[in-house]
Design brief:
Helix content: 25-40%
Structural class: alpha+beta
Number of strands: 3
Radius of gyration: 21 Å
Largest sheet: 3 strands, antiparallel
Strand content: 15-25%
Order of helices and strands: HHHHEEE
Length: 132
């Protein structure tokens, strides 16, 4: 019934919310494909003067979940007014090969068969809507 008596440290964040959001937005505007490479190569090496209390990569990953809601609210605020002209495109996300559909159990009830202009697939269809 006794606990393992290991106390977890409750350290404060070394970056404020706006600094974390700035780094995340800069990643999405950069040409880097993965965040770890972006953080270790660009942010840690060249932006250290801009963020003097920059934490390690693993510590920054822990901070990211705390700013997702404010970041989504900020990005929603940045949207412009829709004027009625919109462009729609879609892409398919394969879950498994068509021959393995009966054996697939990960996305039961969520994934479905779909059709593209080329072929049939099993998975999800991602739609993107953009106004001018």
């Amino acid at each position: 019934m006794l606990g393992n008596r290991i106390e977890k440290r409750q350290r404060r964040r070394s970056l404020c919310m706006s600094e974390i959001m700035t780094i995340l937005i800069a990643f999405h505007q950069s040409h880097y494909r993965d965040f770890k490479h972006f953080y270790q190569v660009l942010v840690s090496a060249y932006w250290r003067s801009k963020f003097p209390r920059l934490p390690s990569y693993t510590r920054f990953i822990e901070f990211m979940s705390s700013v997702m809601m404010p970041l989504c609210i900020y990005l929603k605020h940045c949207f412009g007014q829709c004027t009625g002209i919109s462009f729609v495109d879609s892409i398919y996300l394969h879950v498994c090969h068509n021959r393995r559909i009966p054996q697939h159990r990960v996305f039961i009830g969520m994934a479905a068969r779909g059709k593209t202009s080329v072929d049939w697939f099993f998975g999800f269809k991602l739609h993107l809507l953009v106004n001018e």
